[in-house]
Amino acid sequence: MLHLENIYKSFDNFIAVNGANLTVKKGELVAVIGPNGAGKTTIFNLITGQLKPDNGRVVFKDEDINKLSAYQICRRGIARSFQIANIFPRLTVFKNVQVSVLSQEGKSKTLFYPAKKIAVEKTNSILESVGLTDKAEYPAASLAHGDQRVLEIAIALGNKPELLILDEPTAGMSPDETSATMKLIKDLSESQGLTILFCEHDMEVVFNVAQSIMVMHQGETIIQGSPEEVRNSKDVQECYLGVG
Ligand code: ADP
Ligand code: MG
C-alpha cells in the first residue's frame, strides 16, 4: 500500500533522513522505531506531505505522491496524529470528532440524508471504537493526557483513513495508559482491518503488537522485518541497543 524508496531529507546541512526505506502492506500494523532524533517524525512528515524529500520516492497505492500537497494526500486516504496532542480544548470530545467527520462528509454530499445526521452516527461509532463514549460531552481539555491522545486518534479516524499514521501515540503516557493505548491500536488494526503505521522510541512497546518493524538510526533504515527478525538482528543490537 505504501512504499518509501531510498528517501533523503536535509535541513540546511544536517541530514535528517539518509536513505530510508519502508513498506506497509494493506491491513498491516507497522512500527518505526529508533532513538530520539533518528528521523521518525521527519519520515512521517514526508509521507503526509508536510515536507518534501530531496531524493527518493513515496508511493501510495501505486501512485507517486511526492508532488501532492498535504491536503491532496489526506484526500487519498492517509490520516495522521501528531507527536503533541492536537485537539480543540474547549470543544467537547464529541464535537472534536464530529468536526473531522463533517469535513470528510462535506465532500460526499448525499441527497437522502443530511450530512449532520450521518456525522452524529459516525461520530458515535468512532467514540465507541476508541472507548470514549462515556466522555463524549466532556470538554476535551478536561480529559487526562492519555485520553487526549486517544481523542486525537479518534479525530484522525474521522477522516476515514485507509492508512492511519500515529506519531508516538503513547508519548507522555503512564505505563497503564500505554498498554491500554497499544491494545486499542491493535484492536483497530484487527477488528476494523485498518492499516496502521506508528512510531515509538521504546522498543518494548512495539514488540507485542507490530507485525512488521522498521528500525531507524541516524536517518537510515537499519532493517525492516518481523519482530523476531529485528530482535535477532546484529545490526540492530549494535546500532540501536548501543544508543538506547
Ligand atoms: P525523531 O522523530 O526520530 O525523534 P525527527 O525526525 O524529529 O526525529 O528529527 C530528526 C533530526 O532532524 C533531529 O536531529 C532533528 O533535530 C532534525 N530536524 C527535524 N526537523 C528539523 C527542521 N525543521 N529543521 C532542522 N532540523 C530538523
Ligand atoms: Mg519524533
Strand content: 25-35%
CATH topology name of the largest domain, in short, is: Rossmann fold
Helices and strands, in order, run as EEEHEEHEHHHEHEHEEHH
Radius of gyration (CA) equals 18 Å
For this structure, what is the CATH class of the largest domain? Answer: Alpha Beta
CATH architecture of the largest domain: 3-Layer(aba) Sandwich
Overall spatial form: globular
Annotated CATH homologous superfamily of the largest domain: P-loop containing nucleotide triphosphate hydrolases
- Report how far the terminal alpha carbons are from each other: 31 Å
Largest sheet: 6 strands, mixed
Count of separate DSSP helical elements: 9
Stretches where pLDDT falls below 50 for ≥5 residues? Answer: none
The distinct bound ligands, ions and cofactors come out as: adenosine-5'-diphosphate, magnesium ion
The total count of strands amounts to 10
- SS class: alpha/beta
Arithmetic mean pLDDT: 91
How helical, in percent, are the residues?
25-40%
Strand order of the largest sheet: 6-7-8-3-9-10
> Please, how many domains?
2
Describe this structure in words.
- Helices cover 39% and strands 25% of the residues.
- It has 244 residues and is of the alpha/beta class.
- The chain folds into two domains: 1-77 and 161-244, Rossmann fold; 88-160, no CATH class.
- Helix 3 (93-105) packs across helix 4, helix 3 runs parallel beside helix 5 and helix 4 (115-130) crosses helix 5.
- The protein is globular and about 50 Å long.
- The model has no long low-confidence stretch (mean pLDDT 91).
- The structure holds adenosine-5'-diphosphate and magnesium ion.
- Magnesium ion (MG) is lined by residues 40-41, 83, 167.
